[in-house]
What does this fold into?
Amino acid sequence: MSTQHTAKQIFRPNKDLSRNAAIKNMCEYHDLQEWAEEDYEGFWGTHAKEKLNWNQPFTKVLDESKFPFVRWFEGGKLNVSTQCIDRHLIIRKNKAAIIFEGDRGDQQIITYLQLSYNVNKFANLLKNRFNVKKGDRVVIYMPMIPESAYAMLACARIGAIHSVVFGGFSSKALRERIMDADAKIVITADGAFRKGKPYMLKPVVDEALAGTTPVDKVLVIQRNNEDIEWVEGRDYSYNEVIEQESSICEPEIMDAEDPLFLLYTSGSTGKPKGVQHNQAGYILWAQMTMEWVFDVKENDTYWCTADIGWITGHTYIVYGPLAIGATTVMFEGVPTYPDAGRAWKMIEEYKINQFYTAPTAIRVLHKVGEDEPKKYDLSSLKILGTVGEPIDPSAWMWYYETVGNSKCSIVDTYWQTETGGHIISPLPGATPIKPGCATFALPGIMAEILDDAGERVPAEEKGFMCVTRPWPAMVRGIWRDEERFIKAYFSDVKKDGKPVYFTGDGAMYDDDGYITITGRTDDVINVSGHRLGTAEIEAAIQKYDNVAEVAVVGKPDKIKGEGVFAYIVLKSDSGVADELEEFKTINDIIKQEIGNIAICENIVFVPGLPKTRSGKIMRRILRSLAKGEAIVQDISTLEDPSVVATISELIGQ
Ligand code: WTA
It folds into this structure.
């Protein structure tokens, strides 16, 4: 059993870890941060020169003249796939680049040399057979198998822009992303395995492509070998055509600011946004944060449990680990199948040194097997990472004490799709850590918690988590929507009269200046570390004829962080008799429109929503009601104050 701790408790880094760490103590950290503050361009320019292999050196470090449309490392040319592969072939060609473990325990070890062959062949296939050119968009709708990484790196090699869509998204969500990105081809698999059983992806692609689309080719990787339908002339079997390609593909030499990928993510309003990351700045920061935050040594084995459909999979399964020549573990399954010990068994077997997962996974693993980690030899572990949502001090303590045996550093990494890589995180050999605290901004990141007036907030007061200067891996735009880019990130908070990047999260300093992230301040909710826009879920529910009005909020959940809670006003003439049936229908619609990740655990059918006289839905009240909190706001100005009591009663039932 874990002892009771307060959030103020401090744990100092393990001395063995500090001795050899990339950043060894807080003095080194402050020196780096001071360097960045005093000479921002010198700091970044030096790192960019040292860390990346340039085909042509850059002539200007940062151009902010068109802020927030900034340009880093102007004049520089490079190829991201060569950073991740070719430059390692001299000294580590036979080192494992990817260790793959399938859901059913099948294994593959892919060395850097094999990775090179596979990616080059894949790149040639895209270029020669499918005529994919620099700047074309390629949608990747794949399970967690090594071919997903080959596909991403193959795009990078030929200068195509990939847009990975999480395999849990529905055909409609997939179609929406294909259309917005104006993609030329889709790379998918027949399906894969989950909890010992096959599941399918190709039929979802077929559905997404019904009707007119810009896609003319679909490349299908065989994974589960289930029967699938083929569209003659459109669909190609990877396994049949790949061997015909050469394993040498000259990399396309890219400008530092050419786009590398798009990744769609939810915002507080409207459709998902195509977050755009560019070449040099992104790969530089992926590499630097890998070195600083995970402190991966040459012989280490690193495992991040994310899915490549999310930014964590992009930066910390594929690009970051490969950029530093590390061994990255890729896992198809779930950490609790076939039993509660799966993750711990993998750590023991592969002698994992850095383990990186989400608070939801930690809470699930805790729940299903509190003492399970003790049955395995986890002594190889040095660093335990967490990402995606705030981690509660009790989950943190279990991770620290039971999984890490009180000797590992916990890195609570705060970042977002838009930041490209970590921005606030402990440094494992340097930062004294506190449960539930993301601690401090990484060197080079000018993060500050500001209030409405753009002033730094005092300790223990909530404010807006902002970054006051552009950094190399900052989102470069929302695909083909400049206005939305400015509105989404640079219109809420100003410092000294100038707009700054606002993350959408609230945060707080403690008396020692440690940062705790308190969660989103907008209409984005975070379910098991998955970012969902309430507006998107509402739009899906609205598709149901019987629905007159709907409002969706997040409800705190012990395991998932938040759950989806919907208030629905049915049409008066809908003649609904069975609420359970309606519940099922509504969730089926959500599954079709978005996917399983967005289904509602709670739906209350209400006679009306609390609105102001001007018709604005009072979401704050709905959030409080969902939490079961007493309503302290003044409700007398509502159009119909009585709905609050009615809703409260209905929830109570
Ligand atoms: C949340 C995932 C608290 C936050 C990398 C952010 C966190 C959103 C943390 C981004 C953390 C991520 N502590 N909250 N360590 N990490 N978040 O774009 O609300 O999928 O804005 O990127 O997750 O989610 P996204």
The pocket of WTA is lined by residues 265, 310-312, 387-390, 412-417, 438, 503-505, 517, 519-520, 526, 531 (CB under 6 Å). The longest strand covers residues 547-557.
